[in-house]
Amino acid sequence: MSGVGIVSAQRAHFDQPLDLKGGSVLPAFDLVYETYGTLNAARSNAILVCHALSGHHHVAGRTADNPANVGWWDNIVGPGRPLDTDRFFIVGVNNLGGCHGSTGPASPNPATGKPWGADFPVVTVEDWVDSQARLADHLGIDVWAAVMGGSLGGMQALQWTLSFPDRIRHALVIAGAPKLSAENIAFNDVARQAILTDPDFHGGHFYEHGVRPLRGLRLARMLGHITYLSDDQMAEKFGRRLRTGAGSYGFDVEFEIESYLRYQGDKFAGVFDANTYLRMTKALDYFDPAQDFDDDLARALARARAKFLVIAFSTDWRFTPERSREIVHAMVHNGQAVAYAEIDSAHGHDSFLMDEPHYHAVVDSYLKRVTL
Amino acid sequence: MSQPLERVDFDLIASWVQPGERVLDLGCGDGSLLKRLIEERGARGYGVELEDTEVLAAIRNGINVIQGDLEQGLSGFDDQTFNHVVLSRTLQTVRHTERILGEMLRVGREAVVSFPNFAYWKNRMAIMAGRMPVSEDLPYEWFDTPNLRFFTLLDFEALCARMNLVIRERQVLDDAGRLVTEEPNFLGSLAVYRLGR
After folding, report:
1. Measuring CA to CA, which residue among A146, A121, A182, A150 is closest to residue A306?
2. CB under 8 Å to A127, separation ≥6 — which residues?
3. B62 contacts on A by Cβ (under 8 Å)
């Protein structure tokens, strides 16, 4: 089935300083983004797709230089797909602090001319939403028809309804949570420790040393990957199968799951930036809109005016359905508009990326009711 | 289930809902009742539904549907959030009868409960003839029925008394959807109750 076809990234430069939640100021920044479909005359059909920890602006389609480079959420975007490009104008953006073209730790620090490295500020979900609002201004979009995302992307959709209640009509919060649990933060910290203790990390200034903390990043990704899958799915996909058929009583790759995780770790470490990984996980850890409201989520969400679709997946143990229901019940408490679907899926947290027919039907049905 | 009867059931419930009131419909299906309460009565409604296909249909109808299992109770819903909590033709499919009734009056000020009357005379006739009843309001064969609990108006009212639930209003319909006033436990096929504490 054909999607949006060949796409190319665009770049927007913003020279107004951005005040960050952590207290520092980013004097100027670039955001790299892609768009699919056409913005209508009323500018009322725009949907922002926010990415998760390892995502980027290349949401759908293929790039001209590499036809194998398919967008990370291509299965949901395109003509006739739930995010129907015949109807909607879809925007994908690489978040600030990312490593796919937007200003981030590997970008030159204007103060020194050298890569920011460890000096790049820790950015938060709130900061991302503020920077995305600049992009909306740049594109002439006053109000998003919808902002959506899975996992950390869902947190951004939620934050949009709080930071800019009048600029978003619908929020699709998929496999999300109103904040991380202690267990979630613990996983993130082990991943960060893997990077921070890699001798090639050099306190975050590894660019100047011509090396990259590949071992740390690889371990971080392997750990993360385990938490994105479900026990059932791993059992079905890999079981206890050995690659060679017999044990060698050593520590080389033996079990299929080891091979798979090492492959995923190597692949990721080859393309991702360690400083970005540290910042993305910190943004996850810090996200907690109820914190300023005595941990009362309902009060925190009271200013949201968008309608919500919240989706969770049965086998997601990283962001469990229970966490999504916290959002739902806070909104019901407030009398706000919310629909909630709990999708039966074997794929754990990663389910939000899968082409599961019922899941896509829910998104499709919801978006069909969004007026333009 | 025949459409005309369903509408009579819904007519009664709609007449009890005032504009702006908050309604929770448990087992809301595709959201038909809520849609009507929202459009005709100006209610603010939410529904709870377990089945995937119904949740999808409710989303298509623009309903605030929350996927969940009534057997798990209504944890997460705050106390006294709703003016009316509706359980329409569903109580007989719920295993934890007392718990759901208690939960309805925890989260809502009023519980609206409708259910088929097992003591309806045609059902009694079927039993007398040696077969389990299949009717407008009990439309399933014994081997594929979703119903777990078979009870009568008198049984239900005895449970209400046991639980100290106050019956504020009772309407009883026959299998043609006509209101029944005489001998309701014999002539009534479907009962609709408004309950409070």
Report:
1. A146
2. A18, A20, A21, A22, A96
3. 369
> Which structure tokens are listed for A283?
């943004």
ipTM: 0.93
Smallest Cβ distance to B56: which of A325, A332, A361? A361
The question of whether A57 is a catalytic residue gets the answer no
- Identify the residue among A299, A310, A342 best suited for mutation to test binding to B, counting B beta carbons within 10 A and taking the highest: A342
Size (chain B), residues: 197
A13 is catalytic: no
CB contact under 8 A, B76 and A329: yes
φ, ψ for residue B89, nearest 5 deg = 55, 35
- Residues in chain B within 8 Å Cβ distance of A364: none
Q: In chain A, which residues have their Cβ closer than 8 Å to the Cβ of B63?
A: 339
Q: Per the CB < 8 Å rule, is A365 touching B56?
A: yes
Active site residue A345: no
Alpha-carbon distances of B12 from A218, A284, B17, B112, rounded to whole Å:
64, 49, 9, 10
Choosing from A127, A130, A273, A316, the catalytic residue is A316
Indicate the Cα dihedral angle B157, B159, B162, B166, nearest 10°: -50
Q: What confidence tens digit (pLDDT) does each residue in B74-132 have?
A: 998 999 999 999 999 999 999 999 999 999 999 999 999 999 999 999 999 999 999 99
**A295: region left, alpha or beta (phi > 0 left; psi from -120 to 50 alpha):** left
b/e for B184-195, b at 16 or more Cβ within 10 A? Answer: bbebbbbbbbbb
H helical segments located in chain A: 125-139, 152-163, 182-196, 214-228, 231-237, 256-271, 274-286, 297-301, 321-334, 357-368
Distance CA A148, CA A143 (A): 14
Q: How far apart are CA A48 and CA A51, in angstroms?
A: 10
Query: B114: which strand partners?
Result: B88, B192
Q: Which residues of B touch A (CB under 8 A)?
A: 22, 44, 46, 52, 55-56, 58-60, 62-68, 76-78, 81
pTM for the model stands at 0.95
**Cα gap A59→A353, rounded to integer Å:** 11
Rounded CA separation B112/B91 (Å): 11
For the stretch B148-171, pLDDT in tens is: 999 999 999 999 999 999 999 999
